[in-house]
Design goal:
The protein is an alpha+beta fold. The chain is 51% helix and 14% strand. The protein has helices spanning 9-36, 41-50, 55-62, 70-81, 83-102, 105-111, 234-245, 254-287, 299-327, 335-358, 369-376, 386-398, and strands at 125-128, 144-148, 153-164, 171-177, 187-192, 199-204, 215-226, 289-290, 293-294. The chain has a four-stranded antiparallel β-sheet, covered by helices on one side. Strands 1-4-5 form a three-stranded mixed β-sheet. The chain has a two-stranded antiparallel ribbon with strand order 8-9. Strand 2 and strand 3 (153-164) form a beta hairpin. Helix 4 (70-81) crosses helix 8, helix 8 packs parallel to helix 10 and helix 9 runs antiparallel to helix 10. It starts with 8 loop residues before the first helix and ends in a 5-residue tail after the last helix.
């Protein structure tokens, strides 16, 4: 299949359907849940009721799509509605992606549905990689998983931080160290089933943006899980560790496997936020009259909007290319990181320009652009900071170990 910018009729219908939900349900509730800083359970339930929140939808949109474009299209529309609520709806997908990236087919079928539940009982998933001293540097992860051969259990201890749905999720996917001597190549991913003793929520963070999405620490204190909860299984883990100890190439590091798969989706989130701010400021500029004419008739405003539209389109093209290449495992020059880097920068810049166009009105909570600006900044930070994306790209294009 060749790369194409033309969406199928099914993709176009899906885009319009999600946009309708974002416009009618998400956007009207955005300011309230941003202020409350709580998980918007009623909206999650509504999304589950119509089939937007659920493992079947994710499976069809991701695995059933040969183009790779369906998820970016859906995500852009949802985050056009609101990034905080969008993250509350999409947060479980990161846990699902972690399971899919490392798990066996049997584990995927067992655990991914439990990340979502159903319309009657909505559930959540969480992916836990970051730690207080291990954010961008995944090799600094200290959470330890030790195998108890006598009981065929893994025992996990450590603290995770900045975790979406952390501590309130039904399913936690945790990246932990199984062989400290191998550093990042000695990591593995584990599923922590619901109600497992020893897992608790630490500090819940009050954030600048995406405030409707729950973010907290996850404490692991002698958490014992069955051997079957090691994603991929112990036999494959032992084989991989043996290869690495012999100096051979091992499979990609556990956390990075998940991030590589999700970076185009994160870029699509940023584009949704940027597009919301651009469209709002465009409409405002057409209606706002100063010195006897709409302010868009001033080149200083019109040219700003022209640049905003251009940057958004450029970012979207990079995201779509990355999503298409990712579907084919075709990354050559860190295209996923390029897309995420560009989209994050565009979101911050566009939302800042939107505030400038609205002037004083853009600076107050009566208008949504200040919230979009607050929401946008996270896209320069999570799932690899702007500087980490530059590092990944520079290594890919040079073939050298840039430090």
């Amino acid at each position: 299949m060749t790369f194409s910018l033309e969406l199928s009729e099914e993709q176009t219908d899906l885009r319009d359907w999600v946009h309708g939900f974002a416009e009618d349900v998400v956007r009207p509730a955005a300011a309230e849940w941003d202020e409350r800083e709580e998980t918007p359970w009623p909206i999650l339930e509504e999304a589950a009721k119509i089939g937007l929140y659920g493992w079947e939808f994710m499976a069809n949109a991701m695995m059933g799509d040969p183009t790779g474009l369906t998820m970016p299209v859906v995500i852009e529309e949802l985050f056009w509605g609101d990034a905080g609520i969008g993250m509350a709806i999409m947060g479980s997908a990161l846990a699902a992606a972690g399971i899919a990236a490392s798990g066996t087919p049997e584990q995927v079928m067992e655990w991914v549905p439990q990340c979502y539940g159903d319309a009657a009982h909505v559930k959540l998933g969480a992916f836990a990689a970051s730690e207080p001293d291990a954010g961008s540097d995944v090799s600094a992860i200290r959470t330890r998983a030790v195998y108890d051969e006598a009981t065929d259990e893994w025992v996990l201890n450590g603290t995770k931080t900045w975790i979406t749905n952390g501590g309130i999720a039904d399913i936690h996917v945790v990246v932990a160290v199984v062989d400290p001597e191998l550093k990042s190549r000695g990591h593995a991913s584990f599923v922590i089933p619901p109600g497992t003793p020893g897992l608790s929520m630490g500090q819940k963070f009050s954030k600048l943006g995406i405030r409707a999405s729950h973010t907290a620490e996850v404490i692991l204190d002698d958490v014992r899980i069955p051997g079957s909860c090691l994603l991929g299984g112990k036999e494959k883990l032992d084989e991989r560790l043996a290869r690495v100890r012999e100096g051979k190439k091992g499979k990609a590091q556990a956390a990075m496997q998940t991030f590589e798969a999700t970076r185009p989706a994160v870029g699509a989130q940023a584009i949704g936020v940027a597009r919301a701010a651009y469209e709002y400021s465009l409409d405002y500029a057409k209606e706002r009259v100063q010195f006897g004419r709409p302010i868009i008739k001033n080149q200083s405003i019109a040219f700003m909007l022209a640049d905003m539209a251009t940057e958004i389109d450029a970012a979207r093209l990079l995201v779509w290319r990355a999503a298409w290449l990712g579907k084919r495992r075709g990354f050559r020059n860190a295209e996923g990181s390029m897309a995420k880097l560009k989209a994050g920068r565009v979101a911050v810049w566009v939302t800042e320009r939107a505030i400038q166009i609205l002037g004083g009105y853009g600076y107050v909570k009566d208008y949504p652009v200040e919230r979009w600006h607050r929401d946008s900044k996270i896209y320069d930070i999570f799932e690899g900071t702007e500087q980490i994306q530059q590092l990944v790209i520079s290594r890919a294009i040079s073939g050298m170990r840039i430090e």
